[in-house]
Amino acid sequence: MGLEAFLPVALVIGYLLGSIPFGLVLTRLAGTQDIRSIGSGSIGATNVLRTGRKSLAAGTLLLDALKGTVAVVIAGYIAGPNAAMAAGLGAFLGHLFPVWLKFKGGKGVAVYIGILLGLFWPAAVVFCLLWLATAFTTRYSSLSALVASFITPMFLWWFGHLALSALFAVLTLLLFYAHRENIKRLQSGKESRIGEKA
User: Of 127, 134, 179, 125, which Cα lies nearest the Cα of 153?
Assistant: First the structure.
């Protein structure tokens, strides 16, 4: 199999890894309520935090990020950078639209960071710093993710990573789509702040 022929395989492998709903798995194992029935209904770390279980939220954040990192590292090792990017796209799509949960997944922030970490780690550091700065000043997790993801493709473009910039422009659009209800709540002043329970 040629390297280009491996791209669809990388996309599928990434999707399958990304579709593992760690937030739902961890909260069920811990005996908490169905994470999809509280807060935003998302299976991601921010919504897990609304259960009041910080350890579960941290575990979800770590495992969701690792989905993206593992996908791109494995695909990149096997078939090079294009396969790594395909796997990253697949992992992101898998997290947002997991087939196991009727295509209703998370918002993609942790996976976004994990993909960045695997493809160009300085951009992951910049993303996290932007997220932290915005979160510190506003206490809105959603706004922090939107700001950081909006700037990330420009950061990659500035440093000459044009293919990565294009990939993350697509991921940013998907992330904004996943946060469409958050954006409406931010505009109306009804968005929950970090640490607030549902």
Answer: 127
The pTM (predicted TM-score) of the whole model is 0.91
- Token pair for residue 47? 């919504």
Which candidate, 91, 89, 95, 93, places its Cα nearest to that of 24?
Answer: 95
Confidence of residue 196 (pLDDT cuts 50, 70, 90): low
Confirm if 64 and 110 have CB atoms less than 8 A apart: yes
Residue type, 155: F
Residue 95 makes CB contacts below 8 A (sequence gap 6+) with 18, 19, 64, 67, 68, 105, 106, 108, 111
C-beta separation of 11 from 79 below 8 A: no
Model confidence over 30-51: pLDDT tens digits? 877 777 777 666 787 777 877 7
